Amino acid sequence: MIGKLNHIGVATPSIEESVKLYRDVLGATSITDKWAMPEQGVWVCFVNLPNSQIELIEPYGDASPIHAFLTKNPKGGQHHVCFEVEDIIAARDDMRAKGATVLGTGEPRIGAHGTPVIFVHPKDMGGVLIELMEAPKGAH
Ligand code: CO
């Protein structure tokens, strides 16, 4: 049911510092500016790779959902993996039918690519927080 790997989410205490790593050390040549997603509690920036993206996320505001992650991982680290799906509602219902825990209310929210996303709890996913993202229409 999952399609392409869309991105790997990497939490960081500083997008600026992480950009230096991806640009100056690893040599990435296409990196977006960062922007705020207040309703998600994060700053976001994408490192574009030939076959995928790294999504850098930094806390935005005191209620950011990634504060706890950064308390456990002060230097940041791999936070989630995002796969594309055709239909986010069908994917959510399928996850629930298979016993997985969809985070929050389960109502999809608009993600960093402007399409609906849900997150599936890592306890049911081998320890990996999974983001499912509806593929942009017309992208295939
Ligand atoms: Co993501």
What keyword list fits this structure?
single chain; 140 residues; alpha+beta; 2,3-Dihydroxybiphenyl 1,2-Dioxygenase, domain 1; 3 helices; binds cobalt (II) ion
Write the layout of secondary structure elements.
Elements: E1 5-11, H1 15-25, E2 30-31, E3 35-37, E4 42-48, E5 53-59, H2 67-72, E6 77-85, H3 88-97, E7 109-110, E8 116-120, E9 130-134
Question: What does the model show?
Answer:
Helices cover 19% and strands 34% of the residues. The chain has 140 residues and is an alpha+beta fold. It has one domain: Roll (2,3-Dihydroxybiphenyl 1,2-Dioxygenase, domain 1). Strands 1, 2, 3, 4, 5, 6, 7, 8 and 9 form a nine-stranded mixed sheet that branches. The longest helix is centred in the N-terminal third of the chain and has 11 residues, at 15-25. Residues 7, 9, 55, 80, 82, 131 line the site of cobalt (II) ion (CO).
Which CATH architecture would you pick? Roll
Largest sheet: 9 strands, mixed
Global Rg:
15 Å
Question: Structural class of the helix and strand makeup?
Answer: alpha+beta
Number of domain modules = 1
* Oligomeric state, counting identical vs distinct chains: single chain
CATH class (first level) name: Alpha Beta
- Cofactors and ligands: cobalt (II) ion
* Overall mean confidence score, pLDDT: 95
Shape: globular
Unreliable residue stretches: none
End-to-end distance: 15 Å
Strand content: 25-35%
Number of DSSP-assigned strands: 9
CATH homology-level superfamily: 2,3-Dihydroxybiphenyl 1,2-Dioxygenase, domain 1
> Element order, helices and strands?
EHEEEEHEHEEE
Helix percent reads: 10-25%
How many individual helices? 3
Q: What is the third-level CATH name, the topology?
A: 2,3-Dihydroxybiphenyl 1,2-Dioxygenase, domain 1
